[in-house]
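Onboarding guide, step 5: your first structure request.
Type a short instruction followed by the sequence, for example:

Predict the 3D structure of this protein.
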Amino acid sequence: KMAADTPVDILQKVLENEILQSTKVVEEHLDAEIQKLDQMDEDELERLKQRRLEALKKSQQQKQEWLSKGHGEYREIPSERDFFQEVKESKNVVCHFYRDTTFRCQIMDKHLTVLAKKHIETKFLKLNAEKSPFLCERLRIKVIPTLALIKDGKTQDYVVGFTDLGNTDDFTTETLEWRLGCADVINYSGNLMDPPFQSQKKYGTSFTKLDKKTIRGKIYDSDSDDD
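The system replies with structure tokens like these:
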């Protein structure tokens, strides 16, 4: 008498069947594509090739245009006046309002330098908050560092201190990339529903609580401990 299949055996068979089915679907799809290519005449193939080349050329031109506008590198701009000019000519801009004496600004610099090279569709700038009182007032910047996230000339969102970045000084570049992706200010290829810092929660390491300190409109460092 044959022994009855165990649940594990049944599951194994179901899985094997699933894999066979999906392989079959992929093969059929490939066969159909190959057949389509076989049936194409010279003219159609040539047109397809031309379309591909044009798309490639277009993306190269777009890339060159971005680079000519100062994308692709993380730059400091000297004044508020420059800010308006820079923002006007680019669709996506990330501007870091920093202060020389603030340690956390150097942490932010490190990550922004990497992201500027990776996301050339976005312009990455830094501006000294002490040299731009008008802008800080207008954009209500009270905590340093703050990133202003700008789309089509309008400030859409802010990253204030490290609160949104896992509340720690040693957040990863991927975490900041995810946060910018949430604001749709870069082309983000990951899953926005799955923040990088959730998968790498570090317990017991330096988990710094950040205070947003603003007293009578004065700008405070997010890493200062003074009252």
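Each response can be followed by summary notes, for example: Helices lie at 7-39, 42-68, 80-88, 103-118, 133-138, 173-182, 196-199.
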